[in-house]
Amino acid sequence: MDLKKIKKLGEGSFGSAYLVEDPDTKKQYVLKTIKHEGSLNEIDILTRIKPECQKYLSCIYSSKITRAEIMILMEYIPDTFELFSYLKYNADELNIFTTFIIIKRLLEGLSVLHRLGVVHRDIKPSNILIQPNLLEIHYIDYGFACLKEDIKCIRKFVGSPYYMSPEVYLNRLKFNWEILKSADIWALGISLMELVFPDHFLDEGVYPPDESMDVIMMDIEEGKGVFEDIYRDTVDYEKYSSKTEGDKATFFISIIRPMLNPDWTKRPSAKDMLKLIDIKAKELIEMTRPVGMDIPEGVKSQLIEEIALKYALETPVSKKTKIMTFGDDKRRRTI
User: Fold this and answer.
1) Are residues 208 and 236 located together in one domain of the fold?
2) Of 75, 94, 125, which marks where a domain is finished?
3) 3-state DSSP call for residue 62?
4) pTM for this prediction
5) What is the DSSP string of 195-231?
6) Residue of 164, 158, 129 whose CA lies nearest to 144
7) Which one of 4, 120, 164, 238 has the largest count of C-beta atoms within 10 Å of its C-beta?
């Protein structure tokens, strides 16, 4: 297939991504080129997830390995943006319902990935695409991902330090499948702190800015209450213009808190978190329904989806929002 390059979508330390088009069919794709020092695992991962890639993951069409680089032809999803860039320029456009649905779909996607026998190992907002008007999400960039049976891959020390769980960052354990699944949950938890509280954390970061990551991670491991201080500060009602905004902060912290348990053995799985989401959907409706209005139990989750999608369809996206930035925030880069 002869493809025409339309534009460069982004460039990083391991390679580049281009929007390309088939001149005959006019169908567009993403062509990802990876330097050979990048991971060859990505092709294996994309092949594994291909049967269920459509809703939450990245779909591969073909791949080619040359002496100079690895080329992967992938699905192009129109009107998608990198979540980090979307939050940077559109955070004020999210409400409690749209935020809740994004969280639900991120957990659904991670649950699918783990069920397929894949750990991502580099979950962060710059490795997630969002279709804002449909509230659809897609996990991308599987360069550090591992198949459950690939022990050599699982034991590597890789990822983005800012999103690493303490047991991974401190590198004191022999990594296994269960540890890395739990580490994915932690990374998503940090990402959700940025999603829910972008004014607090997107630019400055979740962790205290005057402490080194080494000290922070050791304090978390030793149970010194680092996150308790962060939670307390985040749900401080005096920070918000109304009680409603304070209630929203408390509501979302109650979802994220289990994901950031310092003890990896006590972190819930993505499947467990979806059970919590079902409970929280009912709580959200009770928080927001007009006084005196009765809502049947069986339609509460559906009602949240309908409210969120109606709002999302009516909300424009800032023209500054980028499709991909390839980690132009140095603090969140990989090692």
Assistant:
1) yes
2) 75
3) strand
4) 0.93
5) HH-HHHHTTT-SS-TTS-HHHHHHHHHTT--HHHHHH
6) 158
7) 120
